[in-house]
Amino acid sequence: MSTSDRVRTITKAHADFADRNPNSRRQYDEARTYMPGGQTRSVLTHSPFPLTFVSGNAATLTDIDGHTYHDFLGDYTAGLLGHSERRVIDRVFDALKTNASVGGIHPGEATLAKLMCERFGIERVRFTNSGTEANLLAMTTAVLATGRKKILVFKGGYHGSVFYFASGSAPWNAPFDFVMAPFNDEEAARAVIQEHGQSLAAVVVEPMLGSGGCIPATPQFLAAVLQAARNVGAVCIADEVMTSRHGARGMMDLLGAQADITAYGKYIGGGFSFGAFGGKSEFMDMFDTSPESALPSPVAHGGTFNNNLSSMTAGCVVLGEIFTQDIAVAHTARGDEFRMALQAVAAKSGKPVCVTGFGSMMSIHALATPPHNADDMLKRDAQLQELLFFGLLERGVYIAARGMVNLGLPHTDDQLAQFLDAFAETLASLN
Ligand SMILES: Cc1ncc(COP(=O)(O)O)c(C=O)c1O
């Protein structure tokens, strides 16, 4: 297709979208009066305007214009359980009826801590309000523990709203002293670790670039990075905010790697805001401010909502009753199968489109061959990517504008089949 035909096709896709969604448009226009950009979560923005959703049920979402979509975004992995899982909502509702804002200790907090330590093989854990905060605290722990300042992160990584590393370190990032290396390049990472050796406090790595395109780390890369970091006395931090859903104990474990401290978040809160960081007691116990603490000056970690009743209660139901280790293993396998089916549809279409990911998290790319790092992601055909998004939406499938797809627990086999059909039709419609 020529460039001008492409531009015409995209202009038409935007116009059709706007025609179908007048109420979302109105909502967006009004919201812009009070919020810059009409929203308060940048990732939700796309042209010409984002949809406004008014309800959800299991793995479907209904927008303000009355369209119901198969929800294959799953709130960027936080929505693993689907919309308003009854068991979570009932338990949280019961808890809230007795004590909404505790202002003290309640049993849910220790119960969830035990569940997390046993589940993920960590010694201690502390709760936060978000994955961003979990990473902030994990990095702070490493800086305090080592007395060093530098933190190695990887290009294409995302660790929260003040930790964007899509290409370089974003100007609005938290003022840590970041150094960067390319993802999935063990030689380059080793060299950077060597170079900054004695001033390196921590290495922070996602076992799969999540926001960066669902690009899994190779086991060799992870092993090399962790070993090199340990050789220079740096703390190894894994960001499993998205990926702890994979397998029985998270994706690091599946790739044979073990961090010193891990950040968690998203689905564990069952739809409520959630974050946690945990790992070895030699690091975590610096937060022991109890009367029994042997530390002369332990580190304080405040947070009004750290142990909020809704998130703690929901987390106990999620990990303790719904998303058990057996279910997590089965869900990872189901995700692998579905991703392969999507990839087969892409390959059959002959279009320059591919699918990457791991387990139940995946991404559709307007690229002929799978990306391995952030530089490969820059080669995506941005216009084709947009057309894939609108093509799927038009056929009743909601995914991330950037191509991310997350399989949730309530997706039925019929929904997966409908997605595969919609994907094949979308690809066939693109020239
Ligand atoms: C890998 C990773 N780390 C951290 C975060 C930040 O979590 P939150 O949005 O809860 O602050 C995200 C969010 O998308 C993430 O994907």
Task: Describe it.
42% of the residues lie in helices and 17% in strands. The chain is an alpha/beta fold and 431 residues long. The chain has two domains: 3-72 and 326-429, Aspartate Aminotransferase, domain 1, CATH 3.90.1150.10; 86-322, Aspartate Aminotransferase, domain 2 (3-Layer(aba) Sandwich), CATH 3.40.640.10. The strands form five sheets. Strands 4-14-13-12-9-5-8 form a seven-stranded mixed β-sheet, sandwiched between helices. Strands 1-2-3-17 form a four-stranded mixed β-sheet. A three-stranded antiparallel β-sheet has the order 15-16-18, covered by helices on one side. Helix 13 crosses helix 14 (413-429). It is globular. It starts with a helix and ends with a helix. It binds pyridoxal-5'-phosphate. Pyridoxal-5'-phosphate is lined by residues 76, 130-132, 135, 158-161, 206, 210-211, 239, 241-242, 265, 275.
**Gap between N and C termini:** 6 Å
Number of domains: 2
Beta-strand content: 15-25%
Q: Which strand order spans the largest sheet, edge to edge or round the barrel?
A: 4-14-13-12-9-5-8
Q: How much helical structure, as a percent, in the residues?
A: 40-55%
User: What is the CATH architecture assignment of the largest domain?
Assistant: 3-Layer(aba) Sandwich
- Radius of gyration, in Å, reads 22 Å
Which residues sit in consecutive blocks of at least 5 with pLDDT less than 50? none
Number of helices: 14
Largest β sheet strand count, sense and barrel closure: 7 strands, mixed
Ions and ligands = pyridoxal-5'-phosphate
- Averaged pLDDT: 97
Taken from the alpha-carbon principal axes, the silhouette is globular
- Assembly of the depicted chains: single chain
DSSP strand count: 18
Structural class: alpha/beta
Just give the CATH class of the largest domain: Alpha Beta
CATH superfamily of the largest domain: Type I PLP-dependent aspartate aminotransferase-like (Major domain)
